[in-house]
């Protein structure tokens, strides 16, 4: 599930302040026990990549996230027009849309706040399982160095996620894309510290979380270059009540995952 939110505009000013008005239990660091997602037999039986039509009755999502309708997200992105697409990854395409900052209803372009909307691809191998992981983890945790998940949608066998829009895009785009002004070393250090704080928060949470996909394309930057971790599709909980977190399934990205770990494949 790649991230590439990289088209700033004149309307991006003061967005950071507006986003803070979206209700959360605590905009700093919270792990509300009520914000959980219960995955039933639909996920357990999913081994062939097919969607299970019973997922609606098997899943219970609670918390401060909004459950959007597909019609609302179509309106927010002008029916997912090609010129609103800002990126594409393994999960699907990412579109930029606009919603009202208070009601979270779709609004006209330039009115309200921008959001990044990930829309699953029919050919995606990630699909439901990664969508559930995103909702499960980002719906449970709130921290300045984790990207904010505003809401979600599953409808007509499509899975969508609605995030705060990160004006400066991914760290990867600033490091490797041609024509981009190089980051100063002071900024790079601040980004590294911010990403480390996000990881430390996950590791030290009540049920420690193992991120498993830490790389520059998953570190997003707001208008002030504050770093936020995104893409929790491969995340998993650490050991709980003596139950091991170790799995024989090798996950991660070559070039970023530890070589000795990938060598066990």
TrEMBL record:
Residues 20-59 are annotated as: Disordered. Gene3D superfamilies: Phosphorylase Kinase, domain 1 (3.30.200.20), Transferase(Phosphotransferase) domain 1 (1.10.510.10). ATP binds at residue 119. Pfam families: Pkinase. Residues 80-265 form the Protein kinase domain. Residues 40-59 have a biased composition (Basic and acidic residues). This is non-specific serine/threonine protein kinase. Its EC number is 2.7.11.1. It is an enzyme of class 2 (transferase). It catalyses: L-seryl-[protein] + ATP = O-phospho-L-seryl-[protein] + ADP + H(+); L-threonyl-[protein] + ATP = O-phospho-L-threonyl-[protein] + ADP + H(+). PANTHER family: OS01G0588500 PROTEIN-RELATED (PTHR45621). Belongs to the protein kinase superfamily.
């Amino acid at each position: 599930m790649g991230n590439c939110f990289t088209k700033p505009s004149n309307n991006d000013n003061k967005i950071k302040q507006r986003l803070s008005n979206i209700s959360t239990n605590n905009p700093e660091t919270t792990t509300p026990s009520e914000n959980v997602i219960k995955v039933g037999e639909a996920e357990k039986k999913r081994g062939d990549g097919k969607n299970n039509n019973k997922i609606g009755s098997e899943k219970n999502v609670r918390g401060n996230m909004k459950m959007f309708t597909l019609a609302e997200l179509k309106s927010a992105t002008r029916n997912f027009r090609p010129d609103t697409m800002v990126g594409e990854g393994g999960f699907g395409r990412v579109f930029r849309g606009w919603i009202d900052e208070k009601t979270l209803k779709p609004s006209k372009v330039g009115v309200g706040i921008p959001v990044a909307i990930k829309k699953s691809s029919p050919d995606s191998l990630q699909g439901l399982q990664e969508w559930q992981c995103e909702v499960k983890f980002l719906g449970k945790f709130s921290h300045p160095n984790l990207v904010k998940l505003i809401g979600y949608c599953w409808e007509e066998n499509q899975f969508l996620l609605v995030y705060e829009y990160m004006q400066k895009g991914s760290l990867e785009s600033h490091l490797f894309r041609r024509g981009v002004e190089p980051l100063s070393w002071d900024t790079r250090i601040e980004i590294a510290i911010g990403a480390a704080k996000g990881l430390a928060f996950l590791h030290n949470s009540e049920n420690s979380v193992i991120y498993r996909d830490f790389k520059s394309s998953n570190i997003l930057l707001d208008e002030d270059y504050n770093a936020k971790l995104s893409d929790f599709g491969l995340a998993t909980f650490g050991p709980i009540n003596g139950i091991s977190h170790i799995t024989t399934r090798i996950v991660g990205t070559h070039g970023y995952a530890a070589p000795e770990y990938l060598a066990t494949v």
